[in-house]
């Protein structure tokens, strides 16, 4: 009787094994760092100031939740913007299965760009989660559904009349919070997310990976994870951090 080889895991299935921190480290090693004056650029792929709202990061499955998928982007504009285009369908209805929705919102908006009904629609369509450059509401509903939501914060206010969707699957630029931008204007910059970029998000934060770097990121993460596991064993057994790093990470840096 012939046996067939097991199918190889897809790049996304391989990538989801690694944390957002491991991926940022890999991107920095691969050279994805730039002068902030060249913005919009990515620094280690990190999308700043956006954190997990659902599941709860402190109870239940939040600490083990990680989403990974191709970016489906949504650009929001202010509700009184009469000139920006309007999509032909609701942006949730257009979201592809397996994607991660990435929603850009105008600066300083205090209303939510995502609510419980949108989670229901996205979950039915197989969307892996949503990353919002703004706020969400209906936290109880997202958490009850087990749907991953990452945002800058939450609000009691819905979209209308404050904002509205404008364009789907276009590049969106996500800026750091203004206070961070002012304090570190020479060291941090914006992230431009393109449709089809790979998004990974977990309790530590959100990272964006250009598709052309995916294979190299996976290889780098796999190697670094192995090294860090060796470091952890040595440190837990009493070896000094300095000696451990010199022994294991010195070889990594030369690789």
TrEMBL record:
**GO MF annotations for this entry?**
4-hydroxy-4-methyl-2-oxoglutarate aldolase activity; metal ion binding; oxaloacetate decarboxylase activity
Which keywords has UniProt assigned to this entry?
Magnesium, Metal-binding
Q: Which cofactor does it need?
A: Mg(2+)
Q: Where does substrate bind?
A: 115-118, 137
Pfam families assigned to the protein according to its UniProt record, in alphabetical order: RraA-like (PF03737)
Keyword flag Transferase: no
Matches recorded under InterPro entries: RraA/RraA-like, RraA/RraA-like_sf
Residues the record lists as binding Mg(2+): 138
Q: Which CDD domains match?
A: RraA_family
In which domain of life is the source organism classified? Eukaryota
The molecule here is called Uncharacterized protein
């Amino acid at each position: 009787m012939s046996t067939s080889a097991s199918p190889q895991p897809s790049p996304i299935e391989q990538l989801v094994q690694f944390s957002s921190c491991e991926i940022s480290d890999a991107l920095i090693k691969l050279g994805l760092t730039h002068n902030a004056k060249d913005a919009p650029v990515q620094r280690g792929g990190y999308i700043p100031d956006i954190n997990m709202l659902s599941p709860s990061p402190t109870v239940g499955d939040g600490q083990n939740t990680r989403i990974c998928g191709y970016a489906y982007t949504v650009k929001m504009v202010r509700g009184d913007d009469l000139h920006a285009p309007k999509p032909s369908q609701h942006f949730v209805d257009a979201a592809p299965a397996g994607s991660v929705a990435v929603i850009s919102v105008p600066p300083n908006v205090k209303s939510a760009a995502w609510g419980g009904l949108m989670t229901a629609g996205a979950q039915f369509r197989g969307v892996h989660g949503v990353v919002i450059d703004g706020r969400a509401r209906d936290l109880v509903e997202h958490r009850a559904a087990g749907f991953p939501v990452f945002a800058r914060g939450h609000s009691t206010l819905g979209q209308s009349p404050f904002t509205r969707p404008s364009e789907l699957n276009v590049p969106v630029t996500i800026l750091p919070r203004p206070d961070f931008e002012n304090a570190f204007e020479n060291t941090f910059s914006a992230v431009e997310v393109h449709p089809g970029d790979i998004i990974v998000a977990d309790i530590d934060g959100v990272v964006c990976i250009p598709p052309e770097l995916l294979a190299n990121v996976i290889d780098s993460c796999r190697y670094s994870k192995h090294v860090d596991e060796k470091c952890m064993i040595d440190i837990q057994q009493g070896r000094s951090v300095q000696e451990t790093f010199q022994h294991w990470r010195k070889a990594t840096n030369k690789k």
